[in-house]
Amino acid sequence: MNEKHVEERKRERASTRKGRGSGVAYGAFFPLRWLFKKRGKQPLPILLLDKMDRTPEAKRIAAATSSSISSSPAVQESPFSNFLSNLSPLNTATTASYTQTLLGTNLPTPPVVFTSPHINLQRETSFLERDDIVEAGSEVYKECNTNIVQVQNPSFAEVQLCSPSGCVDEYLADPVEVDSTCSADLRSQRTNEVPRLLHSGFAPGKESNTEVCDIMFGSPENEAVLLSDQAEKDLPLSSLEMSQAAINQRDGKKTEELSRFIFEKVKESDVNACLVSRAQNCGENAAKRAGCQYDEKNASSQSRHSNERKKRVQKGLVKEGGQNERGIRRHLQFEAAKAYKFTILGNSESPCSLTHDATNSRSPSILTNLKSLASSHFDNRASSSPQDVSCDTSQFPSSPYESFTSAQIGVNSTTSAPIHSGIGLHLNRISRSTSLSSDIFSSKKSTRYLRMPEQMLEHGSNNIATNSNTMKPPCHSMLVDQEAALCEVGMSASQEADEVEELNQLSPKRKRRKDAYMSEGCKRCNCRRSKCLKLYCECFAAGVYCVDSCACVNCYNKPEFEDTVLDIRQQIEARNPLAFTPKVVDNAIDSSPNFMEEQDLTTPSSARHKRGCNCKKSKCLKRYCECFQAKVGCSSACRCEGCKNTFGVTPEPVYDRAKRWEAHPAEKLDNVKGAIACIKAPAFSSASSSNSAKISQAQLPSSQLQPSGAHYDIPYDDTPEILKETSNPTKVVKASSPNQKRVSPPQSRSRLRERSPTGLRSGRKFVLQAMPSFPPLTPHRNSKEGTNEIENDDK
DNA sequence: GAGTTTGAAACT
DNA sequence: CAGTTTCAAACTC
Known about the structure:
The chain is mainly α. The protein folds into three domains: 1-30; 79-284 and 301-314 and 325-570, no CATH class; 584-596 and 653-794, no CATH class. 62% of the residues lie in helices and 1% in strands. It has 40 helices and two strands. Helix 3 crosses helix 4, helix 14 (220-227) packs across helix 15 (229-251) and helix 15 crosses helix 20. Mean pLDDT is 45; it is low at 1-78, 87-255, 265-329, 346-492, 505-516, 590-605 and 650-795. The protein binds a DNA duplex through residues 20, 38-39, 41-42, 510, 525-530, 534-538, 541, 572, 575-576, 579, 611, 613-618, 622-626, 629, 734.
């Protein structure tokens, strides 16, 4: 083996010496495990590829695919699967079947992996989030019952109970009835279901029973939770996990296989949910079944849908949205696979365990969703019909709650979960219940896991054909999610609108390229040597799989290589936990006081580049500059030279952003503003002003700071201590830093802490909470005076 | 389309 | 951690 490696390495080096041009054919002549190898210190990709080829885990995953194809029918023939396939709330016979199946089993306690602490854990989630969930949930429910087309992601229970084919057809025929029927029958179904479940030995544990009861009967608390994104999938797992246990005991099947099977079922529920949502959203007649036409009525019913977006849609940019949605779905799968891996494969020792811990602790049910999504990779049934393929659950309507949650999540994820598992987490939460991409559907339909890029290309062409038949103009709700996703990947809606205008002004050649980019709505890479497994790859960096329209060579950023992708991703995240977070953060999202504190006068009001650019020659006037490309002004995080970033407009006043905290008195905000101003002052002022600022800090009563600190504590209290510490600006900028960045804040902050013993606690909290949620990877603060001067001169 | 420039990412 | 290399996008011709 070693000899073989040496030999191959020699050959590889010889090939490499030929120059970059050899990259295209690179993968054609060398074993896959060497595709990554260029240097001595890159064993991991090789190992990963090796593992991908040979490890039991990879074999198991690969086998899962084939088994899902080959053995799935056997599973489907089981009474349980038949029940699940045929379950209909309107059909009492099937319900009885359900009961009968359960009666015939003596259920043990479900395996841990399927324990469903979601409800309980949901209670443990951030109070801010939780309260919001309650409010939003009841609101959604109310609106649902009043037949407002205020679309809502049906919970799994609703899907399970209301959506199977026959019912769906009815709903498709008359979408109005969907809401009423579903919501009306739902509770009765629940109440009818639960006693049978409980009395039939369906009792894995008292706690679980309570959960089921709560869910089924819809206690006020859990009802709201049920409507939440997580709880939507809690119910299925609560049910399914127990059923799985039954099967597990009865058939002696492995938990893993069963879990996969159950996830398939969950995923199927997504498909069913899609059908329902399509009925709600898109169709008044069954002819629309095959394609979710954009419904302008529904669009107008979406309160949070911006007029800007409407205009673009009416301009015929629906296609863009559809492609955008595609990118989202890719991402969802990406993250789903990740969650699936950590949940099912028990890979809890990843270098990014913190990330996943955070994910799990914050919203374990996310993983439930993700697992269901991930299971899609191993499913071949749901894609059996073109309808299913076209029925992308990205078309899911977005409930008001969803909107709320998305925004809320944006805040929380940015502020209270400093280490992100990537934006996929955001997207999954934004467009939760989003099921499967059509391309994956189709890819899994007829093919096994593809190992070779050649196969993938061939496979991709199939996808194109499939997608061309199945991709439909998106529903309005899709656009909403897409918009959110675009924000996540660094392109806000307004920016996207600007892109549209810009597109019209480009030369034909660039317009073509740009149009291709925008039509995809997501990153399209052209990687040749990175295998799309490095951050060089825009797709990979954006946390999405590459698509067929990418021009990449030897791409491994495909669902087929999810194991590799996830491993690589973990490595990168271990190296830089923020690697997959959006580079551009919106102020509205990152409204943390730390961010407000971080901002300086060159940052525009809308967004900023999180890490800042390091431009030297482009003067931040070309798209080389990430800030410019994102159309945001350079900020204190930038280390650019001669910055002439034209987007560096006057920042939004602190108060304007602070006033978003409506729940807090204005005077507290003033105090916050004052405190922040005091902290910021040294960064923007001369030495004298810096001194005065310090004095101001000293004069700032701790009693004023305290409420502010308490105020900040709420959303950021779960910030890992390690990050808080790392955020502590103890490092001083190197002297060679072009803009002499980040000079002062440690003093001011430490002084702030020193001044008041009472303020020590609150002040400390304030300081800690005021730390950047994403610890700046660059020196903490700079004056940016040079940039300001340049900009002022230009202006 | 080929070649160059650029800056982020990766590596030493 | 600084310097270098690699990489792919952006840009120019």
